[in-house]
Predict the structure.
Amino acid sequence: MDLELRWKQIETAMTLEQEAAEIAGGHDAVSGSGVAPQAEADTLTHPELGSAGTEAAGRGETYTERPGGAAAAIAEVEGQESQPPTEAVPFDTSEIVHGADDRVQVGNTTAYPYRTICHLEITAANGRTYIGSGAFIGPRVVLTAGHCVYIHADGGWVRNVRVIPGRNGAQKPYGEAVGTNYRSVKGWTQSRNSDYDYGVIILPTPLGNTVGWMGLADLSFASLMGLNVNNAGYPGDKPYGTCWWNSNNVLAVTGRRLYYRIDTMGGQSGSPVWRFKDGNRHIVGIHTTGGSPFNGATRINDDVFSNLQAWKTL
Amino acid sequence: MEGRIVSVLETWPLQLMVDGAAGRWSVALSADTVVTEGGRRAEPSRLREGSRISVTGRETGPLAMIAERIDLLP
């Protein structure tokens, strides 16, 4: 079956299902104003969801932690982000890029929010290495993909992650920190379910107090569908350690996933997908997959929001 | 192992989730992984959700392997 047709059928089914769910208990929950450090006001609201909340607790969203770690408590005007301070850089077309490659290099990675976005150099348990991306959500906590902290084919929990915020090629304007403490959920670590592909790195030093962090938003289906979102991270097909930005609309939403045609490549796993609205920036998803016709993110839904709220102050 | 790609996880190198006869495999690529399509060398970015593949490599655990070679099947 033609993939486009299959996606349209899935999209229609999801639209009907989600609309029904939203009528029953839709909401928008937002945490943090997403401003520079010290000034962030955590204006968390988390509405009661009744039976939906109970279901969330039973979906395998129990946190899981790297063995030996301390137990954690068990979360622009709307539209396109203005282009980051940058200079236009020519680049080659890639495969998981949709249509023309319109990724733009972030020239000034010390500008907010780009300084909160991190280049990750991951060493797996067996010593193999990967590149990923992440974003600060608290003083010591970097949000990323579950498969950046727990790699099933390479022995599970990674050995360490070197976190370099605001990296720009060889420049590391805020230095770096190495994390060896992580959180994810059993839906990823045990069930290998991509719907639960998210995690955090907990750093020994509060680099987030220097670079700041974006807020988090658990948005309703209605708010997410068609929302213009931004993404920036560290793709491996570009000069090493350079940060690239792109933006597009959310084209499909499920209970746990967002789909869009934002151009991405390997290395961008864990990068934030954020909404820029009324001068505030809130992460709504964690980029994880490349695909055709859509790339995708783990959606910050009620469960994810709750866990991130608990983890971000670790 | 033969199977169908369920997810392409965008670390660099890539990771794949692949549904095979025995269940869902976690497959990790390396910088040296050879990808072929139609008998010719191809870029890892040709690996797409829904693609059928044959993977040769080293098993590293239950339903987990590091790929040395991935052939995209017609």
User: Anything to note?
Assistant: Chain B touches chain A at residues 6-15, 17, 24, 26-28, 30, 43-46, 48-50, 60-61, 63-66 (CB under 8 Å).
